[in-house]
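User: Could you walk me through two proteins back to back? I'd like the raw sequence and the structure tokens for each, with a short line separating them so I can tell where one ends and the next begins.

Assistant: Of course. Protein one, sequence then structure:
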Amino acid sequence: MIFDRKKLKGMTLIEVLVYLAIFGMFFVVMINFFFFVEDNNQLSGEALKIDRAIILLSQHFEDSFERTTSIGGSTIFNNNNGALYLTGPTNINYTVSDFATSDARLQFFDGAITKQITRNDVEVTKFLLEEILDNSDTNIGVEITVGIRSRADNSISNEFTNSYIFD
């Protein structure tokens, strides 16, 4: 049997190499896309941890200031590593509470019990307290600025400021 080369249909070696090169480029692009999506998901997860910590701190401060009548004398203002001492009426068993930073975590002291407020996977970079004064220079509240950063990725951070007024 004699084959006629003009009637044979098939792919040449060059065509096969071109198709493999195109497929290889497509495969590399897809792999890079999957890694990009995975990295973004991880960054979003770290940002979510920080947002949750901010919500928790904001609610904790709000609850504490609802039961507070004044600020204790040991409060440290205008310092990024401030300490906040709150006093309240003794009939609700909440006489002294204290917020302070230790090991880049915010701690809450209520009597003899120390509790960590912030999670282990975030660190507090700023705990700034500023007095809110009325016209007669009487302290009526505190403006609190808290900076939080992810321990897993230092580039992910957030800062929030809230004002709390005594009732």
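----
Protein two, same layout:
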Amino acid sequence: MATALVYVLHHVRKDDEYGDDAKLIGVYRTQDAANAAIARLLGQPGFRDFPEGFQVQRFELDKDHWTEGFVDLSDEH
């Protein structure tokens, strides 16, 4: 069986006051479709000011991608 992949498009902007401002734009079947979404959004308010914020990540379906657990930083002083 062939590996099923998706391409996840985010836009992330560093904000000194609030930290990372991340937006999930969409999930696409191909890299080309994700790139086409970027092209459509580049002229929109906000995105045009931070064009370097677009990130496309490829993920295999039906696979765990975070397996290490996590640390709750809210309990640390």
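Helices lie at 31-41.

Let me know if you want the two compared in more detail.
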